[in-house]
Design goal:
- The chain has 134 residues and is mostly helical.
- It is 50% helix and 0% strand.
C-alpha cells in the first residue's frame, strides 16, 4: 500500500492532535493564555471559543463539560469524526448502502405498473387505462 507523504503527514498530525486532546484535561487548557486570535485582537469571545476544551472533554467522555465549554460541540464533533474517518479510511462508507432505509420505504409499491406476469410493460405498448387523445 503506497501512501503519499502529504496524506501521511495529515494522518500523523490528526493522531497527534487527538492524542493531545484526549490526554490533556480541559482545565489545563483553560489555565493557559487564550489561543483564539479573535479574543486576543478584539478582547471578546468568538463562536469557536472553548471548542478546544470542548473537544478535549468529548474525547475524555465528559459530554456535559464539553457542552458547557461550547454548545457548538454537538455539531462540530460529529463532523470532525466523519472527516477523521474519511482521512484514515478513504473510500469506505460509515454505513452500508441501504442500511438506513426504513421498512416502509423498502416495501412501498413501485409507481410503475406491472402486468399480471410481473414484468414491466414494453416502451411501445399503450396502457389500457390511459386514453389517447386524437
Amino acid at each position: 500500500m503506497s501512501t503519499h507523504w502529504p496524506t501521511l503527514l495529515l494522518r500523523t498530525a490528526l493522531v497527534g492532535a487527538i492524542a493531545f486532546l484526549a490526554l490533556v484535561p480541559a482545565s489545563v487548557l483553560a489555565s493557559g493564555p487564550p489561543l483564539c486570535l479573535w479574543t486576543n485582537v478584539f478582547g471578546m469571545e468568538c463562536a469557536g471559543c472553548g471548542m478546544t476544551r470542548a473537544l478535549s472533554a468529548v474525547l475524555q467522555a465528559r459530554p456535559a463539560e464539553a457542552f458547557a465549554h461550547n454548545r457548538l460541540v454537538i455539531v462540530v464533533a460529529p463532523i470532525l469524526a466523519v472527516v477523521v474517518w474519511r482521512v484514515f479510511f478513504p473510500g469506505r462508507r460509515l454505513v452500508a448502502r441501504g442500511q438506513l432505509a426504513t421498512k416502509s420505504s423498502r416495501h412501498r409499491s413501485s409507481p410503475t405498473t406491472h402486468d399480471s406476469s410481473g414484468s414491466l410493460p414494453s416502451p411501445g405498448t399503450a396502457n389500457s387505462s390511459v386514453s389517447n387523445p386524437t
